[in-house]
Amino acid sequence: FELENSIKETSTPAKPPKKTGFFNKSNYVNIFTSAVLLFISMCFMHFVLHCTYTTRVSYSGPSVVLSNQNPDGSLYIIDDFRQAYYWLNQNTDPKSKVMSWWDYGYQITGMANRTTIVDNNTWNNSHIALVGRAMASNESAAYSILRSLEVDYVLVIFGGVIGFSGDDINKFLWMVRISQGEFPRHISEPDYFSEEGAYTIGKDVSDTMKNSLMYKMCYYNFAKIRLSYQHPTGY
Q1: Residue 15 has what DSSP assignment?
Q2: Are 96 and 131 in contact (CB under 8 A)?
Q3: How far is Cα 177 from Cα 179, in angstroms, rounded to an integer?
Q4: pLDDT tier for residue 25 given thresholds of 50, 70 and 90
Q5: Which sequence spans correspond to the domains of the chain?
Q6: Hey, which residues does 77 pair with through a beta bridge?
Q7: What does residue 68 show for φ and ψ, rounded to 5 degrees?
Q8: Strands 115-116 and 153-154, sheet pairing
Q9: Nearest 5°: phi and psi at 105?
Q10: Residue 161: closest CA among 112, 70, 226, 229
Q11: Where are the beta strands (DSSP E) in the chain?
């Protein structure tokens, strides 16, 4: 019996020793978990940096001083608004009245220190519509409105030279629509469209649009300006 037991003990194969050290199952799990956490952390960091950049570019810049990028990625500043208000402050009588679309009312009051006809707090829709009617009328009709409002200067924003799309020509249809609501006998929106029914400022522009105060002020002497050597003046 003792001999049989000793034979069984000697014939039983020895178990392989357990792996110890770095290359074991628990370490592989820890490495994988750490890699996943690192990847998630990097994604969060990238998201935060992206949000910070977007906020800085889109929301943090003042509306008076604009910025854009050159083809080489460098930044250039568009300071036309502030310079226009500074010119008004330095070259006009302190009692002068300035007519512009209501968007610029507070800026003219605050930076140029001049009285405006309408501003961002004008609740009288008829008053805003009258300014829109003046902008949409021909020079003779507009002059009568300006005299009745005792206006000394008219300010319009034109972005055709630098490619600024938020100018008054781009907003002009709203002036037409608002003034048409109050003065339907004098202003009709379809009159400012081309024969094809498009809102255009090119060769197909309607006579009503071309003779409006807004169009004439924005494109005054524009035909003498050459924006590119590849195109003639006025393009």
Answers
A1: P
A2: no
A3: 6
A4: low
A5: 30-56, 92-224
A6: 67
A7: -150, 175
A8: unpaired
A9: -60, -50
A10: 226
A11: 66-69, 75-78, 97-99, 115-116, 153-154
Strands 75-78 and 115-116, sheet pairing: unpaired
Three-state secondary-structure class, residue 152: coil
Of 9-18, 121-130, 133-142, 168-177, where does mean pLDDT reach its minimum? 9-18
Return the pLDDT at 235. 65
Nearest to 183, CA basis, from 133, 123, 137 = 133
Phi, psi for residue 97 in degrees, rounded to 5: -110, 135
pTM as predicted: 0.69
8 Å CB contact between 199 and 136: no
Summarised one tens digit per residue, pLDDT across range 109-152 is: 999 999 999 998 888 889 999 999 999 999 999 999 999 999 99
Q: Where are the alpha helices (DSSP H) in the chain?
A: 2-11, 25-58, 80-91, 105-107, 125-136, 139-148, 168-182, 207-210, 213-218
Token pair for 9: 């003990």
**CA–CA separation, 51 and 34 (whole Å):** 26
Cα distance between residue 186 and residue 163, in whole Å: 32
* Choice between 71 and 105, residue whose per-residue pLDDT is larger: 105
User: Which pLDDT tens digit goes with each residue over 29-55?
Assistant: 788 888 889 999 999 899 988 888 777
Top-tier CATH class for 92-224: alpha beta
